[in-house]
Amino acid sequence: MPENGSFRNCCEGGRAWRPGWPGAGGGQPSGHPRPPWVAPALFSVLVVTTVVDVLGNLLVILSVLRNRRLRNYAGNLFLVSLALADLVVALYPYPLILMAIFHDGWALGEVHCKASAFVMGLSVICSVFNITAIAINRYCYICHSVAYNRIYRHWHTPLYICLVWLLTVVALVPNFFVGSLEYDPRIYSCTFNQTTSTQYTVAVVAIHFLLPMAVVSFCYLRIWLLVLQARRKAKSESRLRLRPSDIRSFLTMFVVFVIFAICWAPLNCIGLAVAISPEEMAPQVPEGLFVTSYFLAYFNSCLNAIIYGLLNQNFRREYKKIISILWNPWFCFQDTSKGSHTEGQQGQDLPVVNAQHPVQADAL
Fold it and tell me: Where are the transmembrane segments (predicted)?
């Protein structure tokens, strides 16, 4: 790949310059000094995000691995994959961004810049694909319960997860040919340059965000309709019943989806608008809005573990056990299986009706 001129300019001497928009302003500084509070604020936000990201996602992974009922449910394996996607970004790109903030510029060389941007993209796109896979899993279980066990056999789910990561890597490869991975001094990050190619940016937003969000919305809409239908039938037929734990379990993943969409929508909307009309829209985007949209997206990586703990009693219970073991190592000699009750039957996390009365989507 040809050496990036904007990268050389922003990294020389370890000092950051501030363009009007990456790739759109000819690589010249804007001449407006950054307010002195911005760097400390961004540094503090990213430190908190990194710490919570690492601790929270490790808790999620350990909770599923420790608890047999959590581990045996296919949908929770996707939660582990999602946690890994959130975890990798805290282990490599975030520390490099903190160093860039500390040095007021990127001083680690182009190789780390490209690698950091690649891992950042890997985390983001893999998170999108995992959330989509989780929604499809819930949709198949609720709306196509008869075929669910055939589609999600024990050995199928790991294959689906590998496919998610493979598609993520394939989706990132074009960035190296387009040359869209660059350093942006406004956010102290090596990231995707939204103005390198209009067509490519539009394709990225459409395929990596809008299309998956549409699929997830469709799946959850059909589930909501089926839940409402089941609740109406439950009033007249005793065998058709919906447990409160089923609703909470479904709501947990729905909240994860909504929070993800809220955190990433501003950045994708800005990127789409600027890509369509760079000369007209780029100067109109306030730097504060752009920086806030990026760090809001970064902050999302630490939220999922918090959501599980707040809304899911199984994860909350496992969190407490793991923390107790770390606080008191003798606790690990106790029988960890005692008290490991679930919100209903975790092996069937989101059943709407019993096995004798599967509800098909076609009945809607």
Answer: 41-65, 77-103, 115-136, 157-180, 200-228, 249-276, 288-311
